[in-house]
Write a structure and sequence with these properties.
The protein has helices spanning 2-8, 13-20, 24-28, 31-38, 42-47, 49-69, 81-91, 97-104, 109-121, 129-156. 73% of the residues lie in helices and 0% in strands.
Length: 157
């Protein structure tokens, strides 16, 4: 998971480890995360939503099966439409990071940490490197927020 974040985000492993030790609110309000999210090429992401939608439609069903059958995640979306719609809504500023966290809080931390590299890797086959890299960066940034919350929840309990 750390490798995925350092590969696709503008953070060192030490910075990622530090973020994972902070409370979610501190990270959500941090200049570092705001800068990372602000550096996303939203125009390119919006223009290539059909590409991302096709990738997710093809690869999410087996990913969901893996989550359910191998990692034991109980609540898994029944179709890729949920994830695709969420990404679209986030890019159109209709969904919040806090809501993303709430939706994923029931996912056990080990499953979340195992799933992040695989989820980001769904875009490995996108031929256009700029599009591939931007989607991997966007998904990594959203997953970082989930990982921060999972770390915080583990410390609290």
């Amino acid at each position: 998971m750390l490798t995925t974040f350092t590969e696709h985000l503008d953070f060192s492993q030490t910075e990622i480890e530090s973020l994972l030790q902070q409370p979610l609110d501190a990270v959500l309000n941090s200049p570092e995360l705001k800068q990372e999210l602000g550096s996303l090429d939203i125009k390119l992401l919006r223009e290539t939503l059909p590409t991302a939608g096709a990738v997710l439609a093809e690869h999410l069903p087996p990913f969901y099966d893996w989550l359910k059958n191998e990692l034991g995640v109980k609540r898994v979306p029944d179709s890729p439409d949920h994830t695709t719609k969420w990404v679209v809504d986030f890019l159109h500023n209709q969904e919040s990071l806090n809501h993303l966290v709430e939706l994923h809080r029931p996912v056990p931390r080990p499953a979340l940490e195992a799933a992040i590299p695989r989820l980001v890797g769904l875009f490995d086959g996108v031929e256009d490197s700029k599009v591939r890299q931007e989607w991997q960066k966007a998904v990594s940034a959203l997953c970082l927020v989930l990982a921060v919350d999972a770390s915080e929840q583990a410390r609290v309990s």
